[in-house]
Design brief:
heterodimer, A: alpha/beta, TIM Barrel, 8-stranded parallel β-barrel, 4-stranded antiparallel sheet, 9 helices, 30% helix, globular, B: mainly beta, Elongation Factor Tu (Ef-tu), domain 3, Rossmann fold, 7-stranded antiparallel sheet, 7-stranded mixed sheet, 16 strands, 36% strand
Chain lengths: 303, 258
Amino acid sequence: MADLKVKIHNLEFKNPVTVASGTFGFGEEMAEFFDLSLLGGIFVKGLTIKNREGHVYPRMAETPSGMLNAVGLQNKGIDYFIDHIYPNIKHLDTHIIANVNGSTVEEYIEVTEKLNDLEKVTAIELNISCPNVKEGGMLFGISCPSAIAVTDAIRKVYKKTLIVKLSPNVTDIAEMARAVEGAGADSISLINTLLGMAINAEKRKPILSTITGGLSGPAIKPVALRMVWQVYHAVKVPIIGIGGIMNATDAIEFFLAGSSAIQVGTANFIDPMASLKIIDGINEYLNRHSFQSVNEIIGLLET
Amino acid sequence: MKVVADHKVVNIQYFSEENYVIQMESPVDIPKIKPGNFAEIKVDNTPGVFLRRPFSILDVDYENKLISFYVKVIGKGTRYIGLYEIGDQINLIYPLGNSFTVSDKDRKVLIVGGGSGIAPFILLGKEMVKNGIEATFLIGGRSQRDIILTKEFAKYGDVLVTTEDGSLGEKGLVTQHSVFISPQFKYDRIYACGPDPMMKAVAIIAQQKEITCEVSLENTMACGFGICLCCVTATQEGNKRVCLEGPVFNSRYLKWQI
C-alpha cells in the first residue's frame, strides 16, 4: 500500500480523494452506499446565510460528456446546517469542509463566523465562483479586486484553513490565483463549472429555466487540467483539482498537473462508489510505478 | 443499503417498436421493493448518453433474483437499453425513492396509468391483493399498441381501457372514461402515474370528489438519490427532490398550476 496521505495547509488528509460541493449533499444520503470515513474529505453542499429555494425546474441538461446545472444554491441556510445536519455528520472520521456563499461580503462573513466554532468543520471553501446566482457568487471570482476583497475579509474572521474556489470563467486564472493567495488563501480549489447553455431546437427554447448554467463532467477536464497546471506554476499554496474526474487515471493527471488533492464531482451522480474506486486506483498506479507516496507525483509532469 | 451492481439481461420482450419490457438477473439478493420505487439504469457505450436513466420497477421475482422494467422509447437512452443482448451486463442502482401508500383502511381504489405510467402498478396491484383491497385499473394510451400488460393487471383487479383513437376500450383520454361519471363511482383512494397533464386532470377530479390522490412524478434527474438537487418539484413546503422525497406525492401537497 502506497502512502496516500497529503497535506493541505496544516491539515493532514488520509488520502487525496474528496468529493465536490453540490455533488454529495451533506453526506447523509451517501451513507447508504459506503462508509464515508474512507474519504479524504467531504466538501458539503454550498451554504448561505438564509434558506434558498434555488431555481425553478428544469435545472439540468445533459450535454456531450457532461451536464449543465442551474440549481441555484438550494439549501436551508447555515443555522439549519448547524442545528440539524452537523450533529449527524460530525462523527465521521474525515474532513468536513463547508462551502461558503454570499450575495455580499457581509453575508460571506456572517456564514463564516458561524462556522468558526464547529470543531469538526476543519476548513472552509470560499465559493466565489458559483455561476448560478444573480448576486455575489461568480461575480466575486471574475475580477481580482473583488476576489481580494472577499478573501481578505474572510481571512480576518476565519482562523482555520481557508480554501478559495476559483471560477474558470476568467481570462487569466494564474492572476486570480495569485490575487487570492496574496489575500490570505491557504489553498486554492479549481475549477468550478464553466458557464454554458443548452437549447431545445424543436421548441426554440433554452432547456434550463435560467437559460445559462454551469457545465461539469468530462467535457471540462482538459480546461481544468490546463488551469491547475497554470496555477501550480503561479502560486505556492496547495491546489485541490476539480473538473470531470471520473476515474483514477483522471485523478493521476490532476496530481501530475500540480494538484495536492482532488474533488470528485459529477462522477458521483453516475457512480456513487466512484470516489472509492479512485482511491484504490491511485494506490494501484503508485505501486505499478514504484512510488512510495502520492506526494511524489504532485506536479511531476514532464514538459 | 442500496444495490449498486451489474445485472445480467435475461429477457427483452418487445410489445411494439416503442414499448418493451427488459428483465435482468441480480448477482445479489434483491432487497424489498415497494410499489413506486425506481432504479437508475446506466446506459453504457452510447454516444450522447452521459447520465443514468430512472425507471420505475415493474416487477420483482425475489426467489430467482429477477427485476424487470417497462421501457417506452422516448430518446437515445431508452432506445439503446432495448438494444442490449441477452447475457449483457447493465449496471443498476436501487431501490430509490419513496412508495405509494397502502392503507388497510382502504376498501376500493382506482389506479390510473397513462402510457409508461403503468410501470409501478403491477407491484401496487400485488400489494392491493395482499391487503384485501379491491383495485380497478384504468389504463390509457394513444392507441391499441400502447396498451400492454392488461392480462397481468387483470390478475389483481378489474381493468378499464381508453385509447385516444378508439382502437381499444373507450375512445378518449383516461379522464374522459365513463367510470368517472358512473353513479357507482366510489373509491377510497386514487393513484395516478403518467404524463403531467393526465395526472393533473386526475388530481382535479379527485379533489372535486374529495378523494385522496397520490401521483408519481417523472422529472429529469442527474443522480436519482438526492445529491444533485436537479429534479425538484414545487410543493407546499418549498422545492422537494422528486428522487428522494418523491417520486410519489399526495397531489394536494404539490404546487401544481391547476
